[in-house]
Specification:
This protein is mostly helical. About 95% of the residues lie in helices and about 0% in strands. The protein is built from two helices and no strands.
């Protein structure tokens, strides 16, 4: 049994020794990786540093210009708003005037049409009806003359003739 204890102790010592070697290798590898990362960051700082400096200088130069542009844009918007309000007033006044002119024109046209209608009615009463009456009188005279002519051209019949008596009643 003692041999087992010795074997166990030797195995444990070998395991501890193996672990120590592995930890040392890991430490060395971590150190190499750290050195690489340090070199990479130094290289990046060397490359990016001037770029950041240029960007900062550019921002410092453009910030007043950007502020001035924003102020100018705000002023332009203010002026545009004022002009839009003036235009709105002008358009409103023009549309009100146009509306008034349209109402006046409507009144004038309505009055003219009413006058024209009244003149037409008076023409009808004053001229057309008498013309129709004269035309009716002329037609009556014409019928009378036609009747008289037709009596002269026909031979005289006796008053006892029933056909003639019916014709007279028919006319």
């Amino acid at each position: 049994m003692e041999t087992w204890v010795v074997i166990s102790v030797v195995v444990a010592a070998l395991a501890i020794l193996f672990q120590a070697v592995m930890l040392t290798a890991l430490f060395m590898q971590a150190r190499k990786t750290t050195e690489r990362v340090d070199r990479f960051t130094d290289s990046m700082e060397a490359r990016i540093g001037p770029i950041i400096t240029r960007v900062q200088i550019l921002l410092d130069d453009t910030q007043p210009k950007i502020s001035e542009m924003v102020a100018d844009a705000a002023h332009v918007v203010y002026l545009a708003r004022g002009q839009a309000q003036k235009l709105d007033r002008v358009v409103s006044e023009a549309s009100d005037r146009l509306r008034g002119q349209l109402v006046a024109t409507d009144r004038i046209l309505t009055g003219a049409l009413e006058t024209l209608e009244e003149a037409g009615s008076q023409f009808k009463r004053g001229v057309w009806r008498p013309v129709q009456r004269v035309s009716a009188v002329v037609a009556g005279i014409k019928v009378g003359l036609d009747f008289l002519r037709s009596r002269r051209s026909r031979p005289a019949r006796s008053s006892d003739d029933p056909v003639e008596h019916e014709e007279e009643l028919f006319i």
